[in-house]
Amino acid sequence: MTTVAPDLLRTLAEPDDADLARLDAWWRAANYLTIGQIYLRANPLLREPLTAGHIKPRLLGHWGTSPGLSLIYAHVSRLIRHTGQQAIYLAGPGHGGPALVAAGYLEGTYSEIYPGVSQDEAGMLRLFRQFSSPGGIPSHVSVTTPGSIHEGGELGYVLVHAFGAVMDNPDLLAIAVVGDGEAETGPLEGSWKGISFLNPAHDGAVLPILHLNGAKISGPTVLARKDPAEVRALLRGHGYEVIEVEGDDVPGMHYRFAAALSRAWGRIRDIQAAARVGEWDGVRPVWPVIVLRSPKGWTGPQQVDGIQVTGTWRSHQVPLSGVRDNPEHLALLETWLKSYRPEELFDATGAPTALVCEQAPEGDLRMSATPQANGGLLTRDLDLPDFRGYAVSVKRPGEGRAESTRKLGELMRDVYGRNPDRFRLFCPDETNSNRLGAVFEVSDRAFAERVTPEDVAIGRDGRVMEVLSEHNCHGWLEGYTLTGRHGMFATYEAFAMVSASQTVQHGKWLQEAKNLPWRAKVPSLNVLLTSTAWRNDHNGFSHQGPGLIQVVLTQRGDVSRVYLPPDANCLLSVADHCLRSRSYINLIVIDKQPQLQYLTMDQAVDHCTRGAGIWDWAGTDDGTSDPDIVLACAGDVVTMETVAAAQILRERLPGFKVRVVNVVDLMTLIRPKDHPHGMSETLFTELFTDTVDVVFSFHGYPGAIHQLVHGRPDADRFRVRGFIEQGTTTTPFDMTVRNRASRYHLVMDAINNAKRLPRGAADLKAWCESQLERHDAYVVEHLEDMPEVRDWTLGDWAQQG
Amino acid sequence: MTTVAPDLLRTLAEPDDADLARLDAWWRAANYLTIGQIYLRANPLLREPLTAGHIKPRLLGHWGTSPGLSLIYAHVSRLIRHTGQQAIYLAGPGHGGPALVAAGYLEGTYSEIYPGVSQDEAGMLRLFRQFSSPGGIPSHVSVTTPGSIHEGGELGYVLVHAFGAVMDNPDLLAIAVVGDGEAETGPLEGSWKGISFLNPAHDGAVLPILHLNGAKISGPTVLARKDPAEVRALLRGHGYEVIEVEGDDVPGMHYRFAAALSRAWGRIRDIQAAARVGEWDGVRPVWPVIVLRSPKGWTGPQQVDGIQVTGTWRSHQVPLSGVRDNPEHLALLETWLKSYRPEELFDATGAPTALVCEQAPEGDLRMSATPQANGGLLTRDLDLPDFRGYAVSVKRPGEGRAESTRKLGELMRDVYGRNPDRFRLFCPDETNSNRLGAVFEVSDRAFAERVTPEDVAIGRDGRVMEVLSEHNCHGWLEGYTLTGRHGMFATYEAFAMVSASQTVQHGKWLQEAKNLPWRAKVPSLNVLLTSTAWRNDHNGFSHQGPGLIQVVLTQRGDVSRVYLPPDANCLLSVADHCLRSRSYINLIVIDKQPQLQYLTMDQAVDHCTRGAGIWDWAGTDDGTSDPDIVLACAGDVVTMETVAAAQILRERLPGFKVRVVNVVDLMTLIRPKDHPHGMSETLFTELFTDTVDVVFSFHGYPGAIHQLVHGRPDADRFRVRGFIEQGTTTTPFDMTVRNRASRYHLVMDAINNAKRLPRGAADLKAWCESQLERHDAYVVEHLEDMPEVRDWTLGDWAQQG
């Protein structure tokens, strides 16, 4: 790659008259179509005088941001046409949906995908009428919008999506428009630092365009009202070269924006060229950002009823709201629409004229048609090693110990090695802490800021993404997978709630995409929680909470998956499955500490494939008749306690028939009509019987199990133990005691709930109570010494008897 | 208030020898106590040679950030001593818990609160041994730490807490230390803009201290490795005057930090003085920020085993980890501890020497003792108007319509008026949208940036907090309430998930505080969700999700409350209750659109006081025997559908006995042993019977009800309808159809589940199905016209029959 020829930059910066005419025509057409979507239910081309009957009964949509979004789109399209640059457009002010829909329509993509919305008068009418209507499309940029990987609902994520999209995507330029409302959010403000993790050689580029039009829904914004010198300083501080464009004059704004875009693009290409021929000095590049100041509602009615509208928050949504009842408003609307000279923009059939069409790039270079925004089309399967090769050897269940996630780290190391262009791990500075550090054998952490000799596993070429921001990690992974690549987000369980809303929104995206045949499936969003509620013993209560499971359970079965592998081999099997899967939210929860191992690899594969099963070796159930009690479990710590409880019962209450059921795939508990993983009634009965009481020990909040088993035979018989928000700095075993989920509690639960009890049950209960008293005494006695984790959690339970 | 005398500033900036000696001694003592907490289980004063037996079995805690935190604490204490400034200290790097605990201990506060941790050798030993131990205290700054309103767990909120604390608190200075790890988070980056909403006359001040020690847990941080000029630009861009202190030399660093603090404090007082005598020019002040660059693990062992530790991530937690087994490490630890010259710091009894004690301020001015950090002590009840005065007149239930939240807005307007110093509303730019705009009659929005003549209800003196950041809104309210004032956070239901993690963490804080008798109860955190999942019809699927209810339900009964008032009078009653309450998370969910009104004010008060009740007028249950079905509901939209279903059954299936139960206080459903609001078994049976099937229509996810009623008599009989993630841009009524919770679905559910059916049931079912077919046809037919909300949701249901 060489730097750009000066002639080309000049051409870009200084449109000639023909180019300008095309550009401006396209912009006018987009604005016209935007207003049409908001207002018109008939007479789309104004072939007859506008009447109240042509106006929609309910006026919805956001005009204010739209003309700016369309201006940018037009200019980037021109850049593409002149340069062949591959680009994707992310609209942070995503409520400017009609602008982006208009763009896709003008480029022809919309009609290709939705043939009913054809490029003629009938199609235009349908375009207008479907907007913000039942059975139609939302008012925001959405999954239905061709060219989008970014939903315009919850604000704050446009830059994280853009940076995720360009990672390992060297030829892609992401145009990321940041609205000044969005710029007030924390996640957005924290996402400018994407450039500190960007490699100009193997990654593409993000061009942020901060669009300051001054107002949000009902007031001014901070950045719009700050001294412009402060805004410049802020962006320079974030590491950017600031290019400013301001005004509302046409064609002046076209010339100025073209010059700004040319300069920004030239700068990006210079940075990339230097890095790609090995001439990068290693100093983090100063990437360009454009600050565009144009009036809110630009080109709309200046004043309405004597009150200023354009340039104020009043043009945020529908600037003329009384058009059906107020003839003056109606006339204003007609004048406004005609100000774009639609007769120059659409021909007799209603199709865009050549003048408009020539402005658009062709084929896949159209931003509305780029396969980058339909990443499933670009997705290549991961080259995965055989996960069985990382197996922990298990001779007898519950005998050996291993750090399960360390095995996953080894697997991921080799996934990195085999897939240097399409797999990344995202993690708030905890890769080592989470025992995943094997990945550093093949890749450093990505870091574009200054590196010192003291640093370890950090470098320009690193591709492990560590930033102390769950929002960045989550959002980058979303952008990365939506453009067709694979990854995993590993984080603390309690702090997974920081990005819970992103999980919710991404789930909605995936679910909506499944309704659209043209959207190809993308790699799943894999979330690994390895520092779990039960074992954040020394970090204490603030780090203890299994909330994300509860969040994922609210999502529909089409997308949500929750896995609780009890040991390393199950984890490997589950991870392999998740890395192969498409368009799911896969939540995997497993502790990072040394933990008991139960299943051989063959057993693990079998167990995980079923999702749940009876652990014969753990129970005393001979299968000839119903057991006296079912001890069920989902989650590693609670599985250990359950197996221990079964052992106590086996040894101390002979003749009492205990069945142990372990659940890996939480969704198997749901009825099959409510989730595709839901196990059949027959299998459910095989595992849990129809009538025997079940003591279910769960990693998360107990209520989750109650909601999952609702509708199963006699669901009331499930007694659930789980995390009940009892936490502090204490030993891991004490965590189970405080949450009433220890082996002793489970034994007592079994005794309390079994219908038939052999002799000795009362004694055993008393013994359990004495064990708990002993435990409490021990805690008090050892008040000030935090014992090693090992002593407490991994002790041979038989010894504790 | 006048500006500060130059002499005083000079004294502050240039400590004399005696002052310096005290300062340095205090700092050394704090560092000594910090290390003691991490390492020692015996021999706290090193009266004998250090042996492995004196070392804790498990080494936990974070040394890296601690010396910096203690340096700042010492200097601010000195400032307080010289000036009488009231200050509160918020440690963003909250894992530096031992430093803050040491500070409280040196100031005597710790022993006052926890007499066992006395200022003598035995107390010091207990201080050491309790740290990070079962039954002891967490390793983070926490609820147990005197002087703290900020838990050091989840990062990102130190500035929002600080700004919330100083609002309407003109005499308070909040020292907010921002770690460079925390500075990578989105919420933190987005919270610098607090000054854009701060009024120097009626608010106090925040002095942020960005402590760049270079590293987080296992690598460098972005801000530490950026060109310092970029960091300066960033902070200037956020609106601050940057004062830098850098180095590791002592006493040099004392002199430089003293000078920096003096300058910052003088600048703050100048800004405040000008504003308070009316000399403020209205331009947003440029507030000071201190950037402190000191080595991570400063004053600790430089190298260990030949590898650099101080100044690198290796000193983040425990820099010497092998002390129990490695004699060299043990010797290094002893040398390190002795480097602070403990004999100068603690007398023969183990108490801090006069040299150390003289450094601390006295009484409530000690930051560890300030009542501002135990805000319940300062809390004054709100002066509340009689909420009955805002009642909506209800002649017949379900006849009239009103925007319920508009009534709440009127109530809040008068709360603002009566409590100009202790009530605020926090809302992402949606106060008007949420129909709460009456507050603008008495208060503008707070805004310290440039205001223009076009702006409405925005001004310097405004106290309604609108910023497009849920993180800021939530965090400010937390800081505001933890310092004893009252407020409400109003936001979109779907986007309440953005700050869900803050809700979780604040709930944990409140819960922990209840275990500490010395912590006085603070005003509750009131969260109002008014743009709900069911009525975000034109915004579509991304705006549709009742997730926060699910989150609050995971919290313990000590703190969590969820209210679903069905109409305006119930909302007023609930709001009054919440505004009077203490130390809860009160979640209130109600739509903002015009909605049916059911209860007179007297009925509403009675209904809300019980939390749930039978609506005789809606059903056909004569009370003489069990009904054929119970139709229960919680939430406004689903209540409307339930009442409509009951009406259909009444009219079309005479003789079928329907009971309608409405639930306002969701927690009444839980068993009383699990929640203090849980209704008694008797009352539960009175409402729901023990055996009759219940069709429960719920605002949130159906699973919530299953988890709530678990353990109630025959809980399996509850069939729940609710939000099942079916959403799009559509009519409100279609939302209920898509989620299978419409009146017709409820009627069919009633028929399907009732044990006894009169003649005509099959016909009615068929009729319901035909109605739904008609509806579907209508939606298709009217595909492209979004009808007015009114036509669909508020239609007289009788007419629809």
TrEMBL record, chains A, B:
Pfam families: XFP (PF03894), XFP_C (PF09363), XFP_N (PF09364). This is Phosphoketolase. Gene3D superfamilies: 3.40.50.920, 3.40.50.970. It comes from Couchioplanes caeruleus subsp. caeruleus. Residues 592-793 form the Xylulose 5-phosphate/Fructose 6-phosphate phosphoketolase C-terminal domain. PROSITE patterns: PHOSPHOKETOLASE_1, PHOSPHOKETOLASE_2. Residues 16-377 form the Xylulose 5-phosphate/Fructose 6-phosphate phosphoketolase N-terminal domain. The keyword Lyase applies.
